[in-house]
Design brief:
The structure holds 2 protein chains of 2 kinds. Chain A is globular, with a radius of gyration of 22 Å. Chain A contains 17 helices and 2 strands. In chain B, β11 and β12 form a beta hairpin. By secondary structure, chain B is α/β, with parallel strands linked by helices. Chain B is built from 15 helices and 14 strands. Classes of the chains: A mainly alpha, B alpha/beta. Chains A and B meet through α1, α9, α12, α13 and α17 of A and α2 and α4 of B.
């Protein structure tokens, strides 16, 4: 009965024939995409702006973006692991440990900055290889393996940092990784270039599909997507191009490097998951492992490489975090780093049950968590309240996922 | 038997698999050659599905080797790289993926190294997917529809399309057709034959002996994990295959208990088969029953229409009798009132003539009077005869009769009559001529009584196949649709009924209808020879 009605519905409203029709159909199927998160973000911004009018200032927003870059980068890896239907609890510890390796190599062993950074990322990747291999080969649940990793790599971090417990980063290349500001013109060029390329690719694909007589999304939907991406990108760059120095001179303006790196990682991994065969296999393995195996996908290889990527991304996040704070210490990657990264992925809309989600959810979720933390800091609320509110938001996000999931299932069966 | 290529595409050597202490497969060895479909059958639990899993690389044998094109493999993905593809009995698909991605999952663009790093051209894939689905006769709501929204059958066909898209060298089919509608089953069998003609080796595992006998060249039978028969399809029978499937191993020593269990098992199996047959029989019986019921209903309908025809016939006969009586009465009255009276008065006149014989001049006048009266009498008699039977029809034929009657009638009724008669008509059998004439008379009198028309046209045409068509069309108010002859007769209007009876008498066809522009059309077709 249900199937019949959804069938007729999809017959009545062919894909993207009208905006409202598409929207209604998506609501019915429980396929809301990023809509709830965007609404949540808008609500958070309004509430904090009402409580404290510094929230929506260029200074604070740039700060916010810099704060979430590290968490967001770790969260990209978490999204990949969640797409697989697994979980990685070691990303926080790995991020701290990798950053510590980089810091020790750069400061104590006087390695060149680039080499130290590369070593940190490689160590992260190797950790992922080890854990992924363990999970895929011995069939030990990823929860357990990564929990063991969490403890082990935290121990390793303490060991590497030695008795002092803190390594201050001095190499300008490393500290600039997060803190350097892009020249304003370069920011605009990059932003406009990205938006233009995005629009061009989308329109060309639309044109080709139409001439091949394949189903296409409506032009309105297309315009909306391009418009939204262009608006968000250019608004961000515009905000960051305003002078943030309260004393006016010297001017502090431009996009922070950390944000650029985060954005590049988002774009790259969105391409990987949406376009490349590898990404499709990740979705397939996460969606139904038996189906993936039958389709001839090297399931073990995919799982190991996803855990590798997640750990390498965690390493990148750890290095960004260290760079932003000019130091790596015993608490790097501990505390709420892991929980924030996982919460960001889930709040952004990645399903905990595997096979469903997008890389962008790392950005959206990190924005939500970052905004809450940032806003409460502005209101000078204690961390106790911060944790409780973040917990409530996480619960709400997962509930939305679970409810839409069950609705989808009653809708399709 | 076709000539065999020396190298088998799929070769199994002494395969064995056991779960715990249960030996599921035992020393299974066989080979598949290019361009042949080999059937695999056996009762459920005989090890077919396990064998299929081993062949697909999803499970590994405890001992023995499987080679595809001469190479062994260790996993499903390696098996597929060697060109082996499997259609499973139950499709397992990724719910969130769209149809196209599902079809090409795992091989989106060749089997090149590092190809998992490439990004497939979704557009091209969708076009190929549309072609494959059209080839299989499957329609989906959209090529981008998510698998979760598809029906069970559509999923099955997607799984089959996956294998088609792979262009495999060896196909292992675990017959899914029990859950497919006949068209799709046929599509699957056709696809198997197409593969065979392309030189693909196919292992077709099925319990449906119809399918196996229809498509395979050899049949392998598994029983309790052993290969017990390998027979060419052409030289075996269903009975042999079934026997191979269920026969117990007679060489083995059975303790009485095992015997008892075995015979119990067999008895249960037979009971199951029996109940299945009974089910089939019941189904057949039900179908037969339905057919019978239909036949009976048709028969009843025919009988009742026969009854109705009978009633109409009786009615017509009664009417004929009364009409004949009335006609006789009228004739008698007319003869009595007119002719006899005239004759009587003539007789008196002649008597008078006798008495007046002395005056020749008076006699002359009386004779002249008499002659005139006799002439009148003759013409009266002629009118009576003419009404009984048109004089012109015998002498001048139907055409003249209709012409003269209708012009006379037109003058009387003050209605314009247009008569067109095929000049090639010639003389017709008497019965036909008189019937047609009477029909014209009847129809015209109907027009006068009911139609309120101002114009009537009569057409008489020679049609192909030696039939004559008479159409009488007026521009009056038409019939009260629809015409029901029985109802008309019941209400005392015999015009159309009379026409239809006359037509039936000469084995013709009769139709009356309203003309599109208003008015009535009467159409009669009679064979020239009746």
């Amino acid at each position: 009965m249900n199937q019949l009605s959804s069938q007729t519905q999809s017959n009545l409203v062919p894909d993207g024939s009208s905006l409202m029709g598409t929207l209604r159909q998506r609501v019915r199927q429980g396929n809301l995409g990023p809509l709830p998160v965007l609404i949540g973000l808008a609500l958070i911004a309004i509430v904090f702006q009402l409580l404290n009018d510094t929230f929506l200032t260029p200074v604070n927003l740039t700060n916010l973006m810099k704060q979430i870059a590290a968490t967001g980068t770790i969260s990209v890896g978490v999204v990949l692991v969640l797409l697989l239907g697994e979980v990685d609890l070691s990303v926080g510890a790995v991020s701290g440990f990798s950053a510590a390796i980089m810091a020790v190599l750069s400061v104590n062993a006087h390695w060149p900055a680039l080499l130290a950074i590369a070593a940190g990322i490689v160590v992260g990747g190797l950790i992922g290889l080890l854990q992924g291999f363990w999970i895929a080969t011995f069939r030990v649940p990823s929860f357990v393996v990564s929990l063991a990793g969490l403890l082990a790599w935290q121990g390793a971090l303490l060991r590497v940092l030695g008795t002092t417990g803190t390594v201050n980063l001095t190499d300008p290349l490393i500290t600039n990784l997060a803190n350097a500001l892009l020249p304003v013109w370069l920011g605009w060029v990059l932003g406009l270039g990205t938006v233009g390329l995005y629009a061009l690719l989308l329109l060309r694909e639309h044109q080709r599909r139409r001439s091949a007589e394949l189903p296409t999304a409506s032009v309105l939907m297309l315009g909306l997507r391009i418009g939204l991406v262009a608006l968000a990108t250019l608004l961000m760059i515009g905000l960051m191009s305003i002078n943030r120095n309260p004393n006016v001179e010297p001017a502090i303006r431009g996009v922070p490097m950390a944000v650029v790196i985060f954005a590049v990682l988002l774009i790259v991994f969105d391409y990987v998951t949406q376009r490349m065969r590898f990404g499709r296999y990740v979705f397939a393995v996460g969606g139904n492992i038996e189906a993936a195996r039958r389709a001839g996908i090297n399931v073990t290889g995919i799982r190991i490489s996803v855990f590798m990527l997640a750990s390498a991304l965690a390493a990148c996040g750890g290095i960004l975090a260290g760079s932003r704070l000019y130091a790596v210490n015993q608490s790097s990657g501990s505390g709420d780093v892991l929980l924030n990264a996982i919460a960001a992925a889930v709040i952004g809309g990645t399903s905990l049950f595997g096979g469903r989600g997008r890389i962008w959810s790392a950005l959206l979720g990190a924005l939500v968590i970052g905004s809450i933390a940032n806003g409460m800091d502005l209101l000078a609320l204690p961390s106790s309240i911060k944790f409780m509110v973040t917990g409530a938001v996480l619960l709400a996000a997962v509930t939305i996922d679970a409810v839409t999931r069950s609705r989808r299932e009653t809708n399709t069966r | 038997m076709e000539g065999r290529a020396p190298n088998p595409l799929l070769e199994c050597v002494e395969l064995a698999r056991q779960f715990g202490t249960l030996h599921v497969l035992h020393n299974v060895s066989f080979a598949l050659y290019p361009g042949e479909i080999v059937g695999l059958t056996g009762q459920s639990g005989a090890g077919k599905s396990v064998l299929v899993r081993l062949l697909s690389g999803l499970d590994a044998p405890d001992s023995g080797t499987i080679m595809v094109d001469g190479c062994t493999f260790a996993s499903a993905s390696q098996a597929q790289q060697l060109g082996l593809a499997v259609i499973h009995q139950q499709p397992v698909l990724v719910e969130h993926l769209d149809a196209t991605s599902t079809i090409f999952l795992g091989h989106e663009g060749g089997r090149r190294r590092w190809s998992w790093l490439r990004s497939p051209n979704q557009r091209e894939l969708e076009q190929r997917a549309l072609r494959i689905l059209a080839h299989l006769g499957v329609t989906l709501p959209s090529i981008q529809e998510r698998v979760g929204n598809l029906s069970g059958e559509q999923r099955h066909m997607l799984a089959i399309a996956q294998v088609v898209a792979r262009q495999p060298k060896v196909v292992v089919v675990d017959d899914p057709s029990g859950q497919l509608r006949p068209e799709y089953q046929q599509a699957l069998l056709n696809q198997l034959r197409e593969w065979r003609s392309q030189g693909v080796a196919i292992l077709f595992s099925s319990q449906n002996l119809d399918h196996l006998f229809a498509s395979t060249s050899r049949i392998l039978v598994l029983r309790h994990g052993r290969l017990v028969a390998d027979e060419p399809t052409a030289s075996t029978t269903r009975e042999q295959i079934v026997q191979a499937q269920i026969a117990s191993d007679t060489n083995r020593e059975h303790t009485p208990l095992i015997w008892a269990l075995d015979s119990f098992y067999r008895a249960r199996q037979q009971a199951e088969t029996l109940s299945e047959h009974q089910h089939v029989l019941e189904h057949d019986l039900a179908a037969q029953n339905a057919l019978n019921r239909q036949l009976i209903a048709q028969l009843a309908e025919q009988v009742s229409s026969l009854d109705r025809a009978n009633l109409a016939l009786q009615d017509a006969q009664r009417r004929l009798l009364t009409e004949r009586e009335q006609e006789r009465k009228a004739l008698a009255r007319e003869l009595h009132d007119q002719v006899i009276q005239d004759l009587v008065s003539l007789n008196y006149d002649i008597d008078d003539l006798h008495s007046e014989s002395h005056d020749p001049a008076a006699v002359q006048t009386r004779l002249t009077d008499l002659r005139r009266e006799i002439r009148t009498l003759i013409s009266t008699l002629r009118t009576i005869c003419g009404e009984l039977r048109p004089p012109t029809i015998d002498s001048l034929g139907l055409e003249a009769a209709i012409q003269s009657w209708s012009s006379e009638w037109g003058a009387r009724a003050n209605i314009a009559v247009d008569v067109q008669i095929d000049s090639a008509l010639g003389r017709l059998p008497e019965a036909v001529e008189i019937s047609l004439f009477r029909i014209v008379q009847e129809a015209l009198s109907n027009v006068r009584k009911h139609a309120q028309a101002s114009h009537v046209s009569i057409h008489l045409r020679l049609m192909p196949q030696r039939t004559i068509q008479l159409t009488i069309a007026d521009n009056g108010r038409g019939l009260a649709a629809p015409t029901d002859l029985a109802a008309l007769a019941a209400s005392g209007h015999y015009g159309l009924l009379g026409i239809s009876e006359r037509v039936a008498l000469v084995h013709g066809r009769f139709r009356s209808a309203n003309r599109p522009g208003g008015g009535t059309l009467i159409e009669v077709e009679v064979p020239q020879q009746s």
